[in-house]
C-alpha cells in the first residue's frame, strides 16, 4: 500500500468549500493562462506589431487601476460570494468578446472588451484571497493558499498541452467543414470551458469576519497607514518588473529564438508541471526554511535565471543559446511562483484581518497599474528597437529590490506572537 507523504495529507483535511473554490479558480485561470501563453501570439498572427499588442493588452488593466481600491474599501467585512459570482459570469463573456472582436477586426470593440475583462477580473482578484482565508480553518492557511496558487499551474498545463496537441493535428475535416486548430481555437475552447466556473462559486458558503470594522467604508485607521504602505512596497517593485518582461516572454522567444507557438506552449507546459509540484511543496519549504528561505531564497535564484535567459539574446546564433534560454524559462517560473503563497500569507499576517480586502485590492491596483505602465513603456522601448536583454536586466533589478523589501515584513511578523492565519473551524467551512 502506497503511503501518502505527511505534507500531502494536510491538503486532504481542507474543507470541501476550499476545494469548490479551487475548482472555480481553476476554470477562471484557464482563460488567464491561455491568454498568457497565446494571446500575444494570436494578436501577432492577426497582423498587429509589438507596440500595437502592448497598447491593446494594456487596456485590460485600466479598470482595475482606477476601481480596485474603492472596491477593496467597499468589500471590507462584507460577504464576498456575490462579487465572486458576478466576476465569474462576466469574465468569460468579456474574454470571448475580446477574442471574437479581434478576429473580426473590430479593434475599437476589442479595446472595450479588454476593459470589461479588467473590470470583471477586478471583482475576482479583490475577493479571492480574503475569501480563501475566510473558508480556511486555523493553521491551514499555507495549504489553502498553495492550493489556490496551484490552479494557475494546472490551468497552464491544460492550456499548453491542448495547444500543442491541436496545433500538431493542424486541421480536421468534420462533415463538409474544414476546422483549423491554431491559437484562436485553443483560446476559444478554454474560454468556453470557463463558463462553468459560476456553478462552483454558487455552492460556496458566505462567511464574514467576526471582527468587522464599524467605521465608514471609506475609513482607514491612522495606525494602519504605515503597515499598508510598507506591505505594498515589494508588490510595487515586483509588479513593475514583471510588467516589463514577463507578459512578453512569448514575443521574446518568437522574435529572438524563432520559437513557434506550439513549441512555446510545450515549454510552458513543462514549466507549469514543475510549478504545480513546487507550489504544493511551499508549506513544507516554509516549515523547514522559514520565511527567508521560502521567499528570499527562491526569488533570488529566479532573478538570476531571468537575467541569464535575457542575456542569451547577445549570443542567439550560438548552439547553446536556445537550450539555455529554454532551461532558464522552465526553471524560473516554478521558483518565482513558489514565493507567491508565502508572500501572500506573510502580507495578510502583517496587515491584520480588517485590512485584507483593502490590501488585496491595492495589490490588484498596483499589478494592473504597473503592468499598464510597463506595457506602455515596453511599447515605446520596442518602437525604438531596444533589445530584449536590456529590458530583462531592468526587470531583474526591480525584482531584487522587491525581494529585499520583503525582509522588513519578515522581521516584523517574526517578532509578533505566533498566530495561525485563517478562521476557526465551524459550520461555514464544513459544508457537505
Features:
mainly alpha; Growth Hormone, Chain: A; disordered C terminus; 2 strands; 16 helices; 76% helix; 432 residues
Tell me the layout of helices and strands.
Layout: H1 6-12, H2 16-45, H3 50-58, H4 60-75, H5 81-104, H6 107-135, H7 141-169, E1 171-174, E2 177-180, H8 183-193, H9 197-202, H10 224-245, H11 249-256, H12 261-280, H13 282-311, H14 321-351, H15 356-383, H16 388-415
Antiparallel strand pairs: 1-2
Helix pairs in contact: 2-5, 2-7, 2-8, 3-15, 4-6, 4-15, 5-6, 5-8, 6-15, 7-8, 7-12, 7-14, 10-15, 10-16, 12-14, 13-14, 13-16, 14-16
Describe this structure in words.
By secondary structure, the chain is mainly α. It has a single domain (6-210, 224-415), classed as Growth Hormone, Chain: A, CATH 1.20.1250.20. Helix content is 76%, strand content 2%. It contains 16 helices and two strands. Strands 1-2 form a two-stranded antiparallel ribbon. The chain starts with 5 loop residues before the first helix and ends in a 17-residue tail after the last helix.
Q: Give the amount of beta strand, in percent.
A: under 5%
Reading the helices and strands in chain order gives HHHHHHHEEHHHHHHHHH
Whole-number average pLDDT? 79
Percentage of residues assigned to helices: over 70%
Sketch the major β-sheet.
Answer: 2 strands, antiparallel
C-alpha geometry:
globular
- The CATH topology annotation reads as Growth Hormone, Chain: A
Distance between the termini: 29 Å
List the total number of helices.
Answer: 16
* CATH homologous superfamily title: MFS general substrate transporter like domains
- What is the number of strand segments? 2
